[in-house]
């Protein structure tokens, strides 16, 4: 019986090791030595990570949140897959998080919206930042509802639902100032230095448009690239307002956006970009988004 317990594969089990401690001492077997062996076995998985030698980056996906590194440990090839863990949900952690941020860098501001980069933790270095932060101040009850956890359902929007429910809702939001930040950009009041491309302001009348980085992009991680296209005209609220006569204008806008993006970001080609006409929420504004990298099922398809 004792012989079976002394087999390494049995002895190193925590529930067996503790039970055998006194017996080992009685038999004159060095308990501490056996314990040291077990500690080394437990430490080995940790030491493997410490011994990893980086060779090259194989891939980065999920908008830069997961990286696959190719390297070696003790001359043997291996892969190290790094993925950001979810934020803890404890009140203690979350309440202290804002004051522990380091290397806070302001990326821009528009109306009640602010966005930043920062390091989460004690590091004083400016590179690399590991958090992209958006601040809405002051926020409204509508913002609170929008960002709260909620169920999602598929609804078939008919012309009647759009005219009777959706359009009046969008009108109320416009009248309440929810699009002020968009109009600020279009009118050249904010984010002027961020604009990648725009037609001469006011020259093309209803056909003017512009392109700039989306506020949800950190402007560094190319795999998560998001660009925001805005049109100067204010009579098109959703895809339901698009007509056949707009086809040439839309194609020209798409081509100009692709050319400007490829020119602005080295290493990109136009067939790596996805272009989508999208409404925010219930269509409070219209935007075209170019997204580079990622899977077709992620983000805006």
Task: Describe the protein in words.
The chain is an alpha+beta fold and 301 residues long. The protein folds into four domains: 2-50, no CATH class; 56-83, no CATH class; 98-154, no CATH class; 157-301, HIT-like (HIT family, subunit A, 2-Layer Sandwich), CATH 3.30.428. The chain has helices spanning 2-5, 8-11, 14-26, 31-50, 91-100, 141-147, 159-175, 180-186, 247-264; strands at residues 53-61, 66-73, 76-83, 101-110, 113-120, 131-136, 197-198, 209-213, 226-231, 273-279, 286-292. The strands form three sheets. A five-stranded antiparallel sheet has the order 7-8-9-11-10, covered by helices on one side. It has a three-stranded antiparallel sheet with strand order 1-2-3, with no helix packed on it. A three-stranded antiparallel sheet has the order 4-5-6. β4 (101-110) and β5 (113-120) form a beta hairpin. The protein is globular and about 65 Å long. Mean pLDDT is 78; it is low at 1-12, 24-29 and 281-301.
Count of structural domains: 4
Order of the strands making up the biggest sheet: 7-8-9-11-10
Shape: globular
Query: Could you give me the name of the CATH homologous superfamily of the largest domain?
Result: HIT-like
Keywords:
301 residues; alpha+beta; 4 domains; five-stranded antiparallel beta sheet; 9 helices; 11 strands; disordered N terminus; Scavenger_mRNA_decap_enz_N
């Amino acid at each position: 019986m004792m012989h079976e317990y002394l087999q390494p594969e049995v002895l190193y089990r925590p529930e067996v090791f503790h039970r055998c401690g006194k017996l080992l001492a009685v038999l004159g077997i060095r308990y501490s030595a056996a314990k040291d062996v077990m500690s080394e076995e437990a430490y080995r998985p940790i030491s493997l990570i410490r011994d990893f030698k980086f060779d090259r980056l194989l891939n980065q996906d999920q908008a830069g949140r997961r990286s696959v590194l190719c390297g070696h440990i003790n001359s043997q090839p291996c892969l190290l897959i790094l993925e950001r863990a979810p934020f803890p949900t404890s009140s203690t952690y979350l309440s202290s998080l804002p004051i522990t941020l380091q290397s806070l860098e302001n990326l821009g501001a528009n109306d009640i919206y602010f966005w930043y980069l920062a390091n989460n933790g004690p590091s004083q270095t400016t590179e690399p930042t590991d958090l992209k932060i958006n601040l809405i101040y002051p926020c409204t009850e509508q913002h609170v509802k929008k960002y709260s956890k909620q169920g999602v359902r598929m609804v078939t929007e008919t012309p009647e639902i759009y005219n009777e429910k959706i359009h009046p809702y969008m009108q109320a939001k416009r009248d309440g100032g929810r699009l002020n930040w968009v109009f600020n950009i279009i009118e050249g009041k904010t984010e002027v230095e961020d604009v990648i491309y725009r037609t001469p302001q006011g020259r093309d009348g209803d056909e003017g448009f512009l392109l700039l980085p989306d506020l949800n992009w950190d402007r560094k991680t190319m795999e998560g690239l998001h660009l925001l296209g805005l049109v100067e005209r204010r009579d098109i609220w959703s895809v339901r307002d698009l007509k056949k006569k707009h086809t040439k204008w839309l194609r020209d806008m798409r081509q100009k956006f692709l050319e400007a993006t490829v020119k602005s970001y080295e290493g990109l080609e136009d067939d790596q970009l996805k272009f989508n006409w999208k409404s925010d929420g219930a269509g409070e504004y219209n935007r075209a988004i170019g997204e580079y990298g990622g899977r077709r099922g992620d983000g805006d398809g």
